[in-house]
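REQUEST ID: PR-0412
SUBMITTED BY: lab tech R.K.
PRIORITY: routine
TASK: structure prediction, single protein chain
INPUT:
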Amino acid sequence: MTRRADVLSALDTVRDPELDEPVTELGFVSSCTVSAGGDVQVRLRLPTYFCAPNFAFLMVADAYDAVSRLPDVRATEVLLDDHFASEAINAGIAARAGFAESFAGFAAGELDELRVDFVRKAVLAGTDRVCRPLLAEGRSPEDLAGLTLGDVPPSADLERLRARRAELGLPADDASALLVDVTSGAAIGVQALPLHLARARVTRVNTDANGSVCRGMLSHRYGTRGEGQLEELP
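STATUS: complete
OUTPUT:
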């Protein structure tokens, strides 16, 4: 029998593609119900009425897939509320249609490359999160160029970075270089190091700032905690 807690755990794996954070932690899950027979309904909400429809579609589709994979789920319904494209997105997900079919005449294609671009940004932001403590303890940028992932002290940020690199097919084992090109996976040399670290920092700052803005807007719009949300509302 499917438990509501299992559904919320599955939704923990669904990320906002731009922010690289779970929809549960962001407060985007407004409700989650599970019937005795295994029918699941999840309702999602976003910070504004005009959030980008491609981002919204990815989250609704990923939520549907994550819930549907659970054992003993008989039927899955994931609905996006209070969004200008809710009707098209909800109908497309229910029909298991892609983005291009759901937005026929408006979308040029599917969202695979967009998803990859956001994971690359997540790798850059994660690189800064892992490198900042090392620089703070006195390591030089040149030192970082010689480090492997196995040289870095264990942390949640390191595991998150490994996971995002693995999604892109980039090396993520202990012997892999800490600093790699997000497209080729090649180790970053000393000459390219300043630009790479600067890109990583800017990406992380932008991601964190966008996350704070989204949380504030969602709190202002709804004023209620989302299902599975752990942190306090702003």
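NOTES: The chain has two domains: 4-110, 113-210.
REVIEWED BY: pending
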